[in-house]
Amino acid sequence: MEDKISFFSVRQDLIQLEEALGYDLFVNSSIVKGKEKFIRIFPLGGILHKHEVEEFHKKYIQLYVPETQRSLYLKSLVRSPIGDIEKTTVLKETAIEYLHNIFDSGKEFSTEILSEGIEGCREVVANMVDVLDHHNIESLRGMIGNLSFHDFYTYDHSINVCMYCISLYKAINPKATKRELMHAGLGGLLHDLGKVKIPTHILNNPGGLSDEDYQQIKMHPDFGLELLLSGHCTVDENIDLNIIARVVHEHHENFNGTGYPKKLKGKEEIHLLARVCTIADFFDAITTKRSYNDVLSISDAMNTMRKFKGVKLDPDIFDIFDKQVRYVKSDFARDITLADSFDPTLPYAKLPLAEAKKLEKEMDYGKIKVMDPPLKKKA
Ligand SMILES: [Fe+2]
Ligand SMILES: [Fe+2]
After folding, report:
1. In a domain, 377, yes or no
2. What ligand is nearest to the CA atom of residue 281?
């Protein structure tokens, strides 16, 4: 019956060595595509040595772990001595698979798929919280820059926002519990969930959006809320779906009450994690390259965002974010402004920027003393 379960491939260099293996290792013994026959070549609990893995790899090329043991695999990966970039890359790839299952428009959407996807995301976020434990936003930025690049902007963006949310929340509350950090991360990972109900041609149409299209895009917080609270979605009891739903619903609310969908205002009305997510979402939208727009340097991004303090963004959270991100704060920085209408969720062909002309101090040439030209040496 073994060939009925699904498997995922694992990288040879990331397999646990010299200690009890946390999962079973399989190979595919069939060369017929679509008729894979998986055979266990090494059992959970056994101790593997480097030369054995190399031997396996030579013989079978690809090694697999059963899908049912994915969480065991991720746990042992996170505990292993490999670098954090490697760990994050695997977690990111895993998240992409789950997000793809949720967002894949080819599939009939069902609450079962959603529940499974959210459970997978929870697993990834739990491990992500552990990996990010000794990172701050600054070192995280380096890691995000190093992660592999995919065509699926929504997935990359969601994962980046998830990571920023975890780090930013930790900066706000250094004593945050793992559960709180998981809510921050899951909120970030799922913030744009409602986009699953919006046709892709609208979501990915840079520049050509009609008013009607924009109205439809603006429905995504409501759609996300509906999906999560439809009552059919089951998640691990450690996760409070209501908190995630508030992040999903409120991440486009502006601090001054001009956002959507409810025009909620300030700390009292907008959930803390939603205010965290708004900053993460905004920052990633203007600093991560989408296929069709240009991005801002970190200092331009921060100077631009600063103008939205108290307008779109929670000023106190922004200050904490600002302290964490290292960049050159210089008087000579470009004075650029992002249009008030900027919405990080929209696919801009070009960011709506205006570069304010600096009032250059008029040079007062009249007062410049013209020095006497040096006397020519007499020949
Ligand atoms: Fe959004
Ligand atoms: Fe977003």
Report:
1. no
2. 2
